[in-house]
Amino acid sequence: MTHAAKPLNVLFLCTHNSARSILAEALLNDMGQGRFKAYSAGSSPRENQQPNPLGLRVLQRAGVPVGGLRSKSWDEFAGPDAPQMDLVITVCDNAKGEICPIWPGHPATAHWGYADPSEGDGPEEAKLEAFRQTMHLMRRRLEMLVSLPADKLQKAMLQGTARDLSAH
């Protein structure tokens, strides 16, 4: 795949679209070098849901741009005017078991589970560390995705390739 090729659209899903899916969206857009366009959404974001400020802080400290990140429902990506996804990845165990919309174009799907870094009542420093660790784990897996040769990113191969990466 050359830089002139159409980027691969990747949608990261979580329940509230405030932590893990936001981290994955920001990381892949930063790392994707124009080969990928990442989005994120939630199956049931709370009313007035916003990205977790600790997640945004960890991304900023890592030099990852956070402009334009917002929490949104996956319904935004199921309509006829939505960008067509090539790959849909659930990043939390709750979203994995939910009935997903029928995505236009029938994209490849995978589940890459991560613990929720925003859970618990620990001190802010402990939560920041949880976000940092989650970001690091995601970055390692996303580095493998972005370094795949073009033939592994073809639609017919993408399903197996994305699921293989879930073991890393």
UniProtKB/TrEMBL annotation:
Residues 8-148 form the Phosphotyrosine protein phosphatase I domain. GO terms for molecular function: arsenate reductase (thioredoxin) activity. Keywords: Arsenical resistance, Oxidoreductase. The keyword Oxidoreductase applies. It holds the Pfam family LMWPc. SUPFAM superfamilies: Phosphotyrosine protein phosphatases I. CDD domains: LMWP_ArsC. InterPro entries: Ptyr_pPase (IPR023485), Ptyr_pPase_sf (IPR036196). Its EC number is 1.20.4.4. The keyword Transcription regulation does not apply. This is Arsenate reductase ArsC.
